[in-house]
Design a protein that fits this description.
There is one protein chain. By secondary structure, this protein is of the alpha+beta class. It is built from four helices and six strands; from the N terminus they run H-H-E-E-E-E-H-E-E-H. It has a six-stranded antiparallel beta sheet. The longest helix is centred in the N-terminal third of the chain and has 17 residues.
Amino acid sequence: MLASKPKNIDEYISIFPNEIQIVLELVRSTIIKTAPNAVEGISYAMPTFKLNGKQLVYFAAFKNHIGFYALPSGNDAFKKELLNYKTGKGSIQFPLNKPMPTNLITKIVVYRVEEVTL
């Protein structure tokens, strides 16, 4: 889907159709609101946030879902809340045909902030 690697999150989001941009901005703003000291960047050609020099979370758009990557620890801590989503070792798929679970994203980011600030 990406022709070239984006240099920042704005560039990444601008590549997608408007309806996907809205969802990506929602995920981004949820992370910013929850972790205001986190630093935005691009890693593995995906938007990422770092805190204290450590990876906090990543996210990315795909054809049918938003991939959210809270590293394995984020998934492990929220197993019950993630039962309705397709998950991998460190990935979560939030379907685009359903509302983004911003409350769950917030909880996961709070958990990861606590983890990287220990």
